[in-house]
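Hi C.,

You asked whether I'd gotten around to modeling the 149-residue construct. I have! Everything is below, sequence then structure, no commentary in between.
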Amino acid sequence: MPNGEFDQFKQMSEVWLDMLARMGPLFAQTKIGEPPPEMAKQFRSAVFKSMADQVDEFMRSETFLQGMKEAMDNGLKFHKQYQNALGEFRHATEGVAISDVDALMRMLHQMETRILDRLEDLQERVQHLEGGNNSSPKHAPAADAGRTT
């Protein structure tokens, strides 16, 4: 530790030790189980407020916010690298990677949507045929357009 930092540390520790020495008699007057004197409550409140203000100021500082952004970006980057490496490992061992499962799920979802749409069209056509409805279904096939019933 350079000499300047040691001197700074020494000064701060002397300030805290002096403050504790002055507060010692106040703490000695309080008995266990009794509420602290008003002065101690005010001191505690002032210390907590000061600490909260300092933490709030630090957490809103550009340095802290930039450091948090970098940490989050690095975490996301690491996660992507890990998933890619794990996928390559699973492919190398002829296993199934998460990207394969995701692609399969997307394909199944598309198929499900197409099947449901087709079933809705068929249901409309059946209702049209059974009900004798004069209006045509909204998706009538071209082959039925030329036929008469």
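If it helps when you're writing up: Helices lie at 3-29, 38-59, 62-92, 98-131, 142-145.

Thanks,
B.
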